[in-house]
């Protein structure tokens, strides 16, 4: 049956080649998992999942055109569609089963859950869907705030090191002043570090 369909409609081998190309281009998560140390693998999986969905839409249009010509080709088209579906399921499973390390991983998981073509928003009442979107908004705000604060802390630490080096170099000429200023610089450096990395205060 399949051989007869392929002979009758030469568009199906072309569709198969297109599916092969998509599967070669889209990243396939490892079966035994992979360490997610900085959420980069989660971001990659989400990016590849969106890219796959975009390519699926293009191939769906091609499949519809084939069906208009030969309705009997539906089995062959379904078989090719299932190959893409399996890759999409692999990406989704990897994305949701891998533990997020920070805000970036948590945000991308929520974003995928809110995607119309994959997510669960259509299964939620409007208030619950709004709550999901609000979580994404808060996480994005926190990430933006941290990205602004961390460079300032790094700059402050560099300035502190420069001042400390200068004081140490003048220890012989002004020993009393140096002994008084060095503890202050240590306190200033601690206060410039992010709150989650503080260990003790002066």
List keywords for this structure.
7 helices, mainly alpha, disordered N terminus, 202 residues, disordered C terminus, 74% helix
Topology summary:
Blueprint: H1 2-8, H2 11-25, H3 40-69, H4 74-97, H5 103-113, H6 126-169, H7 175-192
Helix pairs in contact: 2-3, 2-4, 3-4, 3-5, 5-6, 6-7
Unreliable segments of 5+ consecutive residues: 1-8, 195-202
Care to count the β-strands?
0
* Average pLDDT, all residues: 77
Largest sheet: none
- Alpha plus pi helix count: 7
Order of helices and strands: HHHHHHH
Backbone structural class: mainly alpha
Helix percent band: over 70%
The fraction of residues assigned to DSSP E strands is under 5%
Integer tally of domains: 2
Determine the N-to-C terminus distance.
81 Å
Shape: elongated
Q: Nearest-angstrom radius of gyration?
A: 28 Å
